[in-house]
Write a structure and sequence with these properties.
It is built from no helices and seven strands. By secondary structure, the protein is an all-beta fold.
């Protein structure tokens, strides 16, 4: 499980939401995943594929870049299969 901090995935998981992840396999393109990002730890992002050997990830909140490349060494650590919403 990963606890969401911040609002980049607003609409899927708000601040404080617990996301349940399955640790085997890669997500399908467009699905939500737990990703290890160097410097940030484990974050919840939309998996958009691999480009130039780097993960291509997405945010839900329009206040952030829609898509970005994960830093070198970033890796998918789980595929989101459910969530406990706050409130």
């Amino acid at each position: 499980m990963v606890r969401v901090r911040g609002d980049s995935m607003q609409g899927y998981a708000d601040d404080g939401t617990l996301v349940i992840c399955y640790r085997d396999g890669l997500p399908e393109r467009g699905k939500v995943a737990a990703v290890w990002l160097a410097g940030d730890g484990v974050v919840i992002k939309r998996y958009l594929g691999v480009e130039n050997g780097l993960l291509l990830l997405g945010n839900n909140n329009g206040a952030y870049r829609a898509a970005f490349e994960g830093s070198e060494g970033s890796t998918v650590v789980g595929v989101a299969i459910g969530r406990f919403l706050r409130g």
